[in-house]
Request: fold
Amino acid sequence: MNLLFLIDYINYGLGAERALLNIANSLCDKHNVVIAARFDGGNPSYWMDPRIDYRLLNTERDLPLHKKVFSYLKETQALKRLKKEIQADISISFLETANFLNVVSGGPGKTVISIRNYYSLGLKSDYAFIQRIKAVWSGKTADQVVCVSEMIRQDMVKHFKAPQKKTCVIYNMYNVQQEAVPYREDIYDLFIQRKGGSHSVFITTGRLTVQKGQWHLIRAFKKVHEVIPDAVLFIFGGGSLENYLSMLIRENNLEDSTYLMEFDPGIVHYLKEADIYVSPSLWEGFSNSILEALCNGMPVISTDCHTGPRELLAPDTDYSYETDKIEYAKYGILVPAGSEKRLINEPLTADEELLADAMIALAKHPELREKYARAALERAELFKPELITSQWESLLKTLTQ
Reply:
């Protein structure tokens, strides 16, 4: 079977990129796989199977709105040509614009769009109205809508007009090949130096954007550090909020305990050296970072944001429920999500107080950490590559029958 994967870019360390490569790599044994990136971002951030044919559409970036229309027309034609060239049986796209171009360009073959985020909260750019139109069009027109969580599937059906019979849920997988990705020695050496002999090493990974809510974690950590003076916090990633977060660390006198670290594709090596993973996101799709932490046996604290964390950490509960307290769930600890308001020296919010209390509780009670470390590995069993790959294989077979 000839499979085409389409995504905006392939080297920014995004969760969608990681998920796409995991799926594409896993399907190489039985299928001819081509990956097309809209923008030239250089080499992939994660491992790509050498059997994959990697193409670039060389689309211009950051165009004004009136020029984007013409750019989309050019991309549509380029994508049509590529689909015909490789005789694509199925084209699978990731992220809003790639999904839109996938369905607009049509055949040959079936179109599958992958929904990675909770659109009712995630479409917040200056062009949110246009993004919404693209999401609705894609959801209604695609042959299959694959969502990474049940709450996302419900959101697509209820608010973006995706026919329920064309939607399904396939979770992300954890690819153990990531463990073979080497770390950057300069970053790793700095991490080990700053970690020192602390027995309370907190870590989080993700783009430094509003969605990820790292400022709530930094503010909560100030209270943690007051109670546990040798505690350290590492935040891995880059993004638009870097200057604000750096200023926040300085304003709260946390320069010797809270560190913004560059993105490193070998993040698994850092997880193995840390004690507790914390996800402060305001909204999510599925959260590759939480899955990665679970698969490495890390105790996890996460905000109970839409969507993903509750499905990962409390799968036997109502996914639409949002906690207003510390919830010691089956596979991790959930706390209320914060707001989008950026704070500096104001008193901690109620949500930040609860986050800090959960971090302190987990750090100060080794037996609780051990319990959640065991639970993490138990939960990780359901996200093995062979299980998730079999779900994709079943879907591909159904679509081509």
Observations:
- The CA atoms of residues 123 and 131 lie 7 Å apart.
